Amino acid sequence: MTELSGQSSFDSHNPPERELLDDCVHCGFCLPTCPTYQLWGEEMDSPRGRIYLMDLAERGEIGLDGSFTQHIDACLGCMACVTACPSGVQYDRLLEATRPQIERNVERRTPDRLFRNAIFALFPYRRRLRAAAVLGLAYQKSGVPKLLERVLPPRLRAAQALLPPVRLRDAFASLPRRVRPKGPVRRRVAMLSGCVQDVFFHEVNAATQRVLAAEGCEVLTPRQQGCCGALGLHAGREEHAVDRAKRTIATFEKLPVDTIVVNVAGCGSSMKEYAHLLADDPEWADRAREFSAKVRDVSELLAELEPRAPRQRMEARVAYHDACHLGHAQGVREQPRAVLRTIPGLEVVDLPEAELCCGSAGIYNLVQPEPAAELGERKAGNVRAVAPDLLVTANPGCLLQIRRYLDDVPMMHPVQLLDRAINGTEG
């Protein structure tokens, strides 16, 4: 790690704020909830340790290269420490300020840089994802994955294992632009269909439209929408995140709706942060604030509405996994459980170590496959411990990550289960 003195190692564009760094009293309440500290017991891979590194860099006592980047890269950004902290330390703000500094000022090794660039050249683009879905289906049916499973490098092996089951019918399907309820309109909403969600989890979007309509919502789903910028924001690619945020705001702000509904935890978390992301842009700051104020996770909206549609009885034991960017980042914990409990006969159970991330964390399970695998195995063991008939979670990345290590328990998004209870669908 480069040793410096005096001048901050961060550049002048939105560095971590001194006031936020000083909030940490290094009490250690964050340690039991931090995934990497639980794995390795290394102080610099704990939230307070990373804040200490940020503090040193802000004072100019260390540089951003070498082990500084290594320890920040190892963080999942799950924000469990934010939930646990009794002092209200805003580690989320500190991390979101630090990662762009690394992306701007640290030269990554060529293989690392190329791999990360490839991720962002594919995932935010629906047309490219659809082309990848065609190739992925052929690849899955070829038998090649089993042959390459042991010889691929860890990152490519993780990418192969996380490839979702491809259904071309869903990958190329279009959602209705407007879905009207059968009865009186209780709420007018717009829905984010997303990028990865739209191509590989299209059935979740379709189920969301049906459930909202059944509960009296008129649902608008603009065709000309795309990536919300969540992956870029969480990975420190600020320019990407800002561009996608502005496009998303421009798409949705002209719609005459009360609420903007999101069914992906990571996307919802980022969209609620647009006001912070664009706070220094005089043209967009107010627009971002108004937009973020309308954003709700689908479970938040459904919990606000008194159930109107009858539910079929389901005798099942369902384990609910808290997606980190829903539970920790958005503070949405009870609403999904309350919505699931409107289904008669359903038993909703929590998982041991529920605060620990499953290892998905945006692109983390691709760029940090080894610790992600350890966390995935640990989460799968905790799911098996409660012996559920079904696992539900509100983030596609979590579904893919946990499915890799848990192939003996069916999984779905909570809204799919609600759709099955209301509409009798099997999606």
Structure, described:
The chain has 427 residues and is an alpha/beta fold. It has four domains: 18-105, Fumarate Reductase Iron-sulfur Protein, Chain B, domain 2; 110-170, no CATH class; 173-303, Glutathione S-transferase Yfyf (Class Pi), Chain A, domain 2 (Up-down Bundle); 310-423, Rossmann fold (3-Layer(aba) Sandwich), CATH 3.40.50. Helices cover 51% and strands 8% of the residues. The protein contains 25 helices and nine strands. It has helices spanning 18-22, 35-40, 47-58, 67-73, 80-84, 91-105, 110-122, 126-142, 144-148, 154-162, 168-171, 196-200, 202-214, 230-235, 238-252, 265-271, 274-277, 285-294, 298-304, 324-327, 334-340, 364-367, 369-385, 396-405, 414-423, and strands at residues 178-179, 187-191, 217-220, 259-262, 295-297, 316-321, 346-350, 390-393, 411-412. The protein has a five-stranded mixed sheet with strand order 1-3-2-4-5. Strands 7-6-8-9 form a four-stranded parallel sheet. α24 links the parallel β8 (390-393) and β9 (411-412). α13 packs across α25. The longest helix has 17 residues, at 126-142. The protein is globular. The protein starts with 17 loop residues before the first helix and ends with a helix. The model has no long low-confidence stretch (mean pLDDT 94). This is Glycolate oxidase iron-sulfur subunit. Component of a complex that catalyzes the oxidation of glycolate to glyoxylate.
